[in-house]
């Protein structure tokens, strides 16, 4: 595939949707590689409006028409999780490669089915776990591999999942994110992305004990002051072992922090310590900062600057399209070279297995063994 890769986007609402805020500018920054050819939404009228507003040539009537079009090479599925399975099935039927937002399926069973159909069709399915390719995460992985902290002794993460706190002001997604049945909640989205990054840096979970709970029960609607019920988790606690057996603890709680730091990830080792911080627990959506310390001086942690090799590239300055663009660039490399530098659907299944284990451990109140090997992403 030497010409520009022709892509169609499913679920583009100008200025509102994740596709508009992240995928569109990401692909525009890669205009030498990708050509945005089409859009498909829930209706022809909606697709027409999006195509006009965004300067996209073709407004498709539906996903089936897009999947059947010879003008499309890749389909980006950016809609709500409960619709991923049917859209991926349609794309696969048309022989298209797929970029699917995370979570790829509404639960492990759907994810396995989707990975199987992509594999059998011989197309590339990319799982949108973009925190894995954030420059800070990849450099953190290298620091650990190079022995910055020595032997990893333990790791601790505390984070805030902003949409599941005292109030929820996103009218577009309120019911969707607050109902656990939809598979789009604090565990699967912000914590899921961070789990992907943690496994990229520290390796595989071997066993876990967890608490997945909804403590608030109600959430405030800012426009009216009404308190409405919700059942998605607002507290997730994971205790376990990772890598060569190092203890790890993670605690996500709903809401935003009282301050500017809502994600703190610490790695303690025999030779030093590393710390990652961000505005909130959506590690795929926030600017991450690294700091570290080694040796006998324990008075302070010093900021760590990324080497130029980790920052070069024509990436958007905004974190959201920036990380998505990095993932699309890897996808293009894989399509052209037959490599697998981007996270695949098979990789997504293994992350789904970790989340499934977290849910089972909470339901049973027992330690659960985790068999979900992570495939470290190669450098393109």
From TrEMBL:
Residues 5-124 form the Gfo/Idh/MocA-like oxidoreductase N-terminal domain. One of its GO terms (molecular function) is nucleotide binding. Keywords: Oxidoreductase. Coiled coil: none annotated. The keyword Oxidoreductase applies. InterPro entries: Gal80p-like_C, Gfo/Idh/MocA-like_OxRdtase_N, Gfo/Idh/MocA_oxidrdct_glycsds, NAD(P)-bd_dom_sf. Residues 137-278 form the Gal80p-like C-terminal domain. The keyword Oxidoreductase applies. Gene3D superfamilies: Dihydrodipicolinate Reductase, domain 2, NAD(P)-binding Rossmann-like Domain. This is Gfo/Idh/MocA family oxidoreductase. It comes from Noviherbaspirillum sedimenti. The lineage of its organism: Bacteria, Pseudomonadati, Pseudomonadota, Betaproteobacteria, Burkholderiales.
